[in-house]
Design brief:
The protein has helices at residues 2-27, 35-52, 58-89, 92-115, 122-140. It is an all-alpha fold and 141 residues long. It has two domains: 1-82, no CATH class; 83-141, no CATH class. Helix 1 (2-27) crosses helix 2 (35-52) and helix 1 (2-27) packs parallel to helix 3 (58-89). The radius of gyration is 23 Å and the shape is flat. The protein starts with a helix and ends with a helix. The chain crosses the membrane at residues 30-50, 62-81, 93-112.
């Protein structure tokens, strides 16, 4: 049922907002800290839990996807705007912290990329498949 998916999304959103507010209070910040992210993690966990128990139906999926395509991008944009406003008013330490986190993420992506070794690009895969197809056609002719 579509209404079940909408209810699940609403429940995850409300829980995420409450937990984000509590986290903000614990950290001494006058803002919701990660409420949208927590809501998304709860929704992912709920989907895994429901799928394992064969309770994730097409109707539930439709309800979640309906609001996911409309609501979640708007909430994320609003939360990002608040985060930027809080960072700018928070002074240079917040901006330095944000820049450090972004640099750390870039470094981790590079490190994980190097650790995983070389993998084929889509261009290489397509070229190999075309060559195999041409070779196969030449063998049959």
């Amino acid at each position: 049922m579509t209404i079940s998916g909408v209810a699940l999304l609403a429940l995850c959103t409300l829980l995420g907002q409450v937990l984000g507010e509590l986290l903000g209070v614990q950290l001494g910040v006058k803002a919701n800290v990660g409420g949208v992210g927590i809501a998304m993690i709860l929704l992912i966990a709920a989907r895994v839990w429901l799928t394992d128990r064969k309770l994730w139906t097409a109707g539930v999926n439709q309800g979640v996807m309906l609001w996911a395509s409309l609501y979640i991008p708007i909430v994320i944009a609003m939360a990002a705007q608040q985060d930027v406003a809080a960072a700018v008013s928070g002074g240079p330490m917040v901006l330095i912290g944000g820049i450090c986190v972004v640099c750390l993420c870039f470094a981790m992506v590079a490190l994980i990329g190097r650790m995983s070794g070389r993998s084929e690009t889509m261009d290489e895969i397509e070229a190999r498949e075309r060559l195999a197809s041409i070779t196969e056609q030449a063998d049959t002719a």
